[in-house]
Amino acid sequence: MVTAEYEASTLDEYQLANLPQIEHRGYYYFLLQDNPRIAAQSGSIFLLIQTLYNYLFPVNIDAESATGFIASYFGHKAEPLLPDETTYEQNTLFSDLQLEQNTLNIFDSYQHEEFDADIAYEFTNTLAILIRANGKPIIRIINNLIKKFDLSNDIISETLKALGRIENENTKEERYQLLMGLIKDDSAIIRDGAVSGLSFLDDRRALPQIRMLFETEAVPILKSNIKVAIRSLETY
Amino acid sequence: MKHTNEMPYFLRAIHSNIEWDNPDYRSWLQENELPSCIVRDLRADDNALSLWEISDNQSNLLDIIAAFVSMSNGIKDDFDYALLSTHYINEINFMPLRKPARTAYTNFNHYHRDVPNLSVNQVVYFAYLLSRHGKFDRMGWKEIEARLKEAHTRGQLDLKKMKPQLKKQLGIPE
Question: What is the complex's ipTM, to 2 decimals?
Fold first, then answer.
């Protein structure tokens, strides 16, 4: 059913953004009917994503097995090539819940790590893969998870730094807005993460508000860190 | 936190300077207590603490940080550190030994020191001194990148020792 050959090179990660997905027995499937060009390019109508050690590996499954799978999953006959609106909405809803769970799994697996440069590198890469594969919706989901207060301040701070480091033009504006929304957080370590993230994102639009933050910041070491971020943003 | 200007310093790399004096922890930490999360900054491989000697005017500070970062994976990151005057190191009978580092920025490897044969109590006391007398600060990622690029231009980086991701970040061809 599953071909052994990895097919990541046949698909642009960018094109996977916003596609609905479903999960079955630990595998994550992206429906590709709504993008025939990708389907033709990959030679199948589905793309399978396997989760392994928190990394997402895209591989192909053949069209016949995929159609049979989707039929059994929804408990009715095989989906037409272009799903009707109801099915699309159902898939989209499922996608959000599943994406949230996937993201939470990543956070959980790093929640008790003692972050150092190597762990930060690994964590950044893991989030980068998730963001490149899922695009803008995943930033909204990360934002929601942060606001639910289920995560430790440490992991939130590291997430904010990672969001600044990731190279992905498609989600840059959403990451910028998320980071800006947290520069006045009650927690000093979250403020520090947001300011660092903006410095790594290297978007000079943040400068006026970060300068204002510098004026009002009461924690001396954070004030000094904000000054470092301002200097980085001012440097071309 | 105070520091003196009269003597050279020892630099200790730390993950997050704010964790050493985080106001979020003040509600539950007693006076003179340190938060347990800083344990990550006290790793003592082979029972030795790794330190770097910084001149009293800190003229070699950026180069030493660049040397440290020259071995990294090449993600954008600021460098958090604490400086402690050698006066305090001498006071507690720490014996820093010259042990040249193996970074790619070879001109500055000889500033590295190891403080060997340390017990947990000694490491904890070092943390206490750092917290009480250390100067905590951060070097911005762009300053570090710029210094590494300058070092490369001057032919001072041993490219064989550098990871591909860092070379890519610095625009150095493989």
Answer: 0.92
User: pLDDT tens for residues B116-169?
Assistant: 999 999 999 999 999 999 999 999 999 999 999 999 999 999 999 999 999 999
Domains of chain B, residue spans:
9-169
Of A113, A101, A112, the closest CA to residue A26 belongs to A101
Residue of B nearest to A153 (CA): B24
Entry pTM: 0.76
Q: Go through B12-41 and write b for each residue having 16 or more CB atoms within 10 A of its CB, e for each that does not.
A: bbbbbbbbbbbebbeeeeeeeebbebbebb
| Crossing angle (nearest 10°) for helices A153-165 and A172-180 | 140
Query: Which pLDDT tens digit goes with each residue over A138-164?
Result: 999 999 999 986 889 999 999 999 999
Minimal Cα distance from A113: which residue of B?
A: B40
Name all contacts of A44-53 with Cβ < 8 Å and 24+ positions apart: A45/A81, A46/A70, A47/A7, A47/A11, A47/A16, A48/A2, A49/A21, A49/A133, A50/A26, A51/A26, A51/A27, A51/A102
Rounded to a whole number of angstroms, the distance from the CA of A96 to the nearest CA of chain B is: 29
